[in-house]
Amino acid sequence: MKEKIEKRTCTRCEQEKEPAEFYTESRYYCISCERETARDRMSRYGKTLRGKAAQALATSRKTIKRNGYKVKDDLTLMDVIFTFAMADGECSYCGKVTDDYQMEHIVSLAKNGPNTLSNICVSCKPCNLSKSSKGLLQWREYDEVVDVIQKMAGRRGVTIEEVLEDFTT
Ligand SMILES: [Zn+2]
Ligand SMILES: [Zn+2]
Predict the structure, then answer these.
(1) Residue 152 and residue 119 in contact, taking contact as beta carbons nearer than 8 Å
(2) pLDDT score, position 26
């Protein structure tokens, strides 16, 4: 039997959309509206975002080089700017909004996590420190991080189960 999928209405474009067209259940805007507002933010805060993003990208490359990590790395400056613009200062883990956010690898580089768009998010300093290089599910209960996992799945175009496989290997 097919499960009944509830459509939801985006509060920005006011169109009825499938749940898959939203990043997470807690978001009010559909993905295309989120992208549009992120683009607006990019043009408004472009300079600040670019500087912060360039620094975050450089730091990640330095970490990989210094430790000799053999991880996939195709992260671009635009990927980081886009991630920062989408988050608008909101920590992906605890939801706190701060100016002092950092680029965070969901599967840490030390645990062989790739330096790619699908593996990065925005984290506040306390969450970043507390998570450190722990696995996401060693650090938090599944229910607390399901939003982040859903977002990863959406960006990679895979299922939540496939994302979870990465956490257990
Ligand atoms: Zn919309
Ligand atoms: Zn946080």
Answers:
(1) yes
(2) 81
